[in-house]
Amino acid sequence: MRVFVPFDASDPKTRLDPVLGTDERLSFARAMLTDVLAAIEGAGGDPTVVATEPIDIQVPVTVDERPLQDAVNDRLAETVVPTAVVMSDLPLVTPETIDRLFSVDGAVVLAPGRSGGTNAFVTRHPDFRVDYHDASIRDHRAIAAAIEVDPVEVDSYRLGTDIDEPADLAEVLLHGEGGAAEWLRERGFEIAIADGRVGVER
Hints:
By secondary structure, this protein is of the alpha/beta class. It has seven helices and nine strands.
């Protein structure tokens, strides 16, 4: 299956600023991207990275500086279905996770993220498009309904866990199996427990 992976190569993961410097944010984002690509390829997918600027990586890269929504929708319009889009900040995914996403039968298959986002989807309908503003999972349900499709949703912890905030790093250390978890450990991050809450410290 053809899979597009959007990637901010310019100034990624700004909400991690409290714990990572600018260069570290880019390096960590690259580590997460590598994990996602390995999972896609392990599931038999054919990934292309849609990046905001050129990057050196072992899969095809298309440079598109436009907002995420425009970049994705143009590719959906130009590509024969089925097509998948998987976000690059999902370092918990495994080949089994992605295979499950690919295997669900449906014209539009959505993988909700936390806080109302859409972390991945598969479309087998040529008219499906995206809207990543605000609570995008709600918008994508409505878009599917407008083209007379009943979307199927994948309830997956690994697909649903995107990494945006410093607190999210604990999920990578606890459950990550790839380079992103190793990247954090090599730079001194570890699990910290205080007042019954799990977090990270460096």
